[in-house]
């Protein structure tokens, strides 16, 4: 009996998930049949039905018109069932607001927008929800531009976009009142951010594309001019107008917006890059499709394989002639993006829009890389050509691209190529080789090849390159640059170097190494104490690095073993800077080991973040700041400091709560312990905040 029940629940879930995968002539019958089955089995399998509907609304956002229709039909057949569905989704919305899960908030609000069309909720109920999001920017606070307000306005805009056709029945005044509030905020937002180039990916792009809210408003106005009709995807709820006419409408509790979330947690859509030409008359359709693609990428971030699978199904619900699909076309080579919207190119544009989002991408760069790899595996020939075309078009605009985005694209391309046999047509970029060393195209190409060498080995990468491009990679494999070779030393320096090297190789301790250095340099009576200290510091650092130069594990063990000696030598900002510069000189031919060694020295507090910043921006690096590895080190250092501060703030809050807790049995409690814990965490946090400020 248990097996039969589990089998039935599995079939119910499968029916809900698969319904409406395609805009087929049988869609109306399928939805009607599904609603009958769900209404019949709802009493016995309520949890399964509600859970599956919730997950489908959240994780299959492009099928919102389908699941809003299913919810409407369930409500029309049994208003109690409809109430449970609506109450569930309202609860999910409230939880998403508390967590700051803004994409889920946006997706659920879109679902509620279509519930007006199915007569499941009233228009006034939805407008009340929209007004909650617009309240912070209405009235006296209309001119206050914040990340929070921009996020709220964006969600209100996307909701009204989908509810417009149903709401216009109330008269134009209700919609126009909300649009007026939105327009006022968007206007102020545009003025405040007019000179903001920090979030501009391509500096040669039209300005209207950089202001996402202004772009969204233009989409809304275009839809309004067309009677609020959205023709990009099938609207099956229009097939059941007679059923919905007699349905019971439900009221929903008022929403409460969060007030204590950090500014960085608020969300607006990234600027959609245009990497191939698109027909201008299809701007609204393009936005709707790319919005669905973007929501799917966000909502399925936890499973790249499912995300890739479902991304390639989104076009299934499109109305006829909305977009061309190369993977289903008889002659993909004849599909022209200049005359029609091409689905695969829109997927690529969304992917690269997320990858290059500023100031930081929403998820780790590797997610977008692995997702592209999964997409290409699903459609090897077509997606390979699409992604290659997209990359070519971006690289052509590299001179106008933000350097951070250029670095991300380089990382993406290197990992992507490494997953497909390191095959790439480098010859088409060979004109960049003749450019000056620090030009963006040449630098991008060279940095990408150096990353490929990291992922493989030098000789293999050389074999993939045309003769004209070989000069972009090193002549020899990456290695260290040990200063104290026999040929470059005088006799007394050789004596110190040999003794220090022998001590380290024979598994000597940090104390023994310090004693050897002190003994030998004490004989150098022709130099002062400060110079002897500088020489000893450099000698020890060079030999520790040499000891750990074989592998990452060797490096970690060497630094850990001689950490006390290194910390003793790094007793001042000047000393720390010298150690960092010695590391850079030692690994000048291997930037990967340079970055890793700096990271480990930071972890062990041998150097501090201010040291790294000072090293990277000293006069020796003038003209070299186009090298990606320097920015990689800087970014990792800043991220490490910020992460430590966040962790310590969390620990401090926990310690304060523990200290304030009333202990029932005071005799068994140690009253000094909580106080000491709080004081310790406060002290460490103050130190980290100072380092954050110095950096």
Task: Describe it.
- The chain has 695 residues and is mostly helical.
- Helix content is 63%, strand content 0%.
- The protein has 30 helices and no strands.
- It starts with a helix and ends with a helix.
- About 2% of the residues have low confidence.
Strand content: under 5%
Helix content: 55-70%
Low-confidence stretches: 662-668, 672-676
Count of separate DSSP helical elements: 30
State the order of secondary-structure elements, H for helix, E for strand.
Answer: HHHHHHHHHHHHHHHHHHHHHHHHHHHHHH
Q: Give me the count of strands.
A: 0
How far apart, in Å, are the first and last alpha carbons? 66 Å
Largest sheet: none
Radius of gyration (Å) = 31 Å
What class would the helix/strand composition place it in? mainly alpha
What sort of overall outline do the alpha carbons produce when their principal axes are compared? elongated
* Nearest-integer average pLDDT: 87
Gist of the model:
It contains 30 helices and no strands. With 695 residues, it is an all-alpha fold. The radius of gyration is 31 Å and the shape is elongated.
């Amino acid at each position: 009996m248990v097996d039969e029940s589990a089998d039935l629940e599995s079939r119910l879930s499968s029916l809900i998930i698969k319904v409406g995968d395609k805009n087929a002539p049988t869609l109306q019958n399928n939805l009607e049949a599904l609603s009958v089955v769900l209404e019949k089995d709802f009493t016995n399998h309520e949890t399964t039905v509600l859970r599956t509907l919730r997950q489908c609304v959240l994780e299959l956002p492009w099928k919102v018109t389908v699941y809003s229709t299913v919810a409407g039909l369930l409500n029309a057949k049994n208003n109690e069932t409809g109430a449970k569905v609506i109450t569930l989704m309202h609860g999910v919305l409230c939880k998403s607001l508390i967590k700051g899960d803004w994409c889920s908030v946006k997706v659920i609000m879109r679902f509620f927008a279509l519930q007006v069309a199915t007569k499941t909720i009233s228009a006034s109920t939805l407008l009340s929800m929209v007004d909650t999001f617009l309240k912070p920017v209405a009235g006296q606070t209309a001119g206050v531009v914040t990340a929070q307000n921009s996020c709220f306005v964006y969600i209100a805009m996307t909701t009204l976009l989908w509810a417009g056709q149903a709401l216009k029945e109330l008269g134009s005044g209700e919609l126009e009142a909300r649009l007026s509030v939105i327009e006022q905020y968007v206007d102020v937002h545009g003025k405040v951010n007019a000179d903001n180039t920090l979030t501009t990916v391509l500096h040669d792009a039209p300005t209207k594309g950089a202001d996402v809210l202004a772009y969204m408003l233009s989409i809304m106005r275009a839809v309004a001019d067309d009677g609020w009709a959205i023709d990009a995807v099938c609207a099956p709820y229009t097939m059941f107008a007679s059923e919905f006419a007699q349905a019971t409408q439900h009221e929903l509790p008022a929403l409460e917006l969060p007030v204590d979330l950090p500014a960085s947690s608020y969300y607006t859509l990234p600027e959609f890059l245009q990497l191939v030409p698109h027909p201008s008359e299809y701007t609204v359709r393009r936005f709707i499709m790319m919005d669905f693609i973007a929501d799917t990428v966000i909502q399925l971030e936890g499973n790249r394989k499912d995300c890739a699978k479902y991304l390639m199904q989104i076009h299934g619900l499109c109305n006829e002639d909305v977009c061309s699909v190369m993977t289903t076309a008889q002659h993909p080579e004849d599909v022209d993006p200049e005359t029609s919207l091409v689905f695969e190119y829109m997927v690529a544009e969304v992917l690269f829009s997320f990858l290059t989002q500023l100031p930081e991408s929403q998820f780790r760069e590797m997610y977008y890389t692995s997702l592209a790899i999964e997409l290409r595996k699903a459609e090897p020939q077509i997606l390979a050509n699409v992604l290659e075309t997209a990359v070519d078009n971006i690289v052509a605009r590299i001179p106008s691209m933000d350097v951070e985005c250029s670095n991300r694209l380089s990382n993406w391309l290197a990992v992507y190529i490494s997953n497909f046999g390191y095959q790439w047509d480098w010859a088409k970029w060979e004109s960049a080789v003749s450019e000056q060393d620090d030009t963006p195209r040449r630098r991008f190409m060279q940095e990408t090849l150096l990353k490929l060498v990291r992922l493989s080995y030098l000789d293999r990468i050389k074999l993939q390159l045309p003769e004209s491009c070989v000069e972009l990679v090193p002549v020899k494999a990456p290695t260290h640059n040990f200063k104290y070779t026999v040929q470059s030393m005088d006799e007394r320096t050789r004596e110190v170097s040999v003794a220090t090297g022998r001590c380290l190789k024979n598994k000597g301790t940090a104390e023994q190494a310090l004693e050897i250095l002190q003994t030998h340099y004490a004989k150098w009576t022709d130099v002062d104490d400060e110079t002897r200290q500088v020489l000893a510091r450099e000698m020890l650092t060079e030999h520790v690095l040499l000891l750990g130069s074989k592998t990452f594990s060797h490096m970690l063990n060497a630094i850990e073993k001689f950490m006390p000696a290194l910390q003793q030598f790094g007793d001042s900002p000047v000393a720390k800077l010298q150690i960092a510069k010695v590391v850079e000189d030692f690994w000048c031919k291997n930037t990967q080991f340079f970055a890793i060694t700096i990271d480990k020295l930071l972890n062990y507090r041998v150097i501090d973040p201010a040291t790294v910043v000072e090293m990277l921006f000293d006069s020796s690096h003038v003209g070299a700041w186009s090298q990606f590895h320097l920015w990689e080190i800087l970014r990792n250092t800043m991220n490490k400091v910020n992460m430590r501060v966040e962790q310590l703030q969390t620990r401090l809050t926990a310690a304060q709560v523990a200290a304030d807790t009333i202990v029932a049995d005071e005799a068994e409690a140690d009253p000094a312990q909580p106080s000491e814990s709080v004081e310790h965490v406060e002290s460490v946090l103050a130190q980290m905040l100072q380092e954050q400020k110095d950096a």
